[in-house]
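Intended use. Records like the one below are meant for learning the mapping from a protein sequence to its folded structure. Do not use them to infer anything beyond what is encoded.
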Amino acid sequence: MTITPSEASIIAGDIATKSSNVTLGFIDRFSGSVVIIGEVSEVESALKAVVEKLHDLLDFDIPKITRT
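Structure written out for the chain above:
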């Protein structure tokens, strides 16, 4: 299945807000960018949930996430 960046950003925002205590600061439907706001541990948890779900459902590759 192929999805557009805007679809991926909406899905990611939905997963992030449902899996952790975070809010969405911004979603760019053209580039697929999502700004997630919250405590560092909550944002990390949300990102982990998004990456795992997109990997499981759509076979996305899992990138290594660093704090740089």
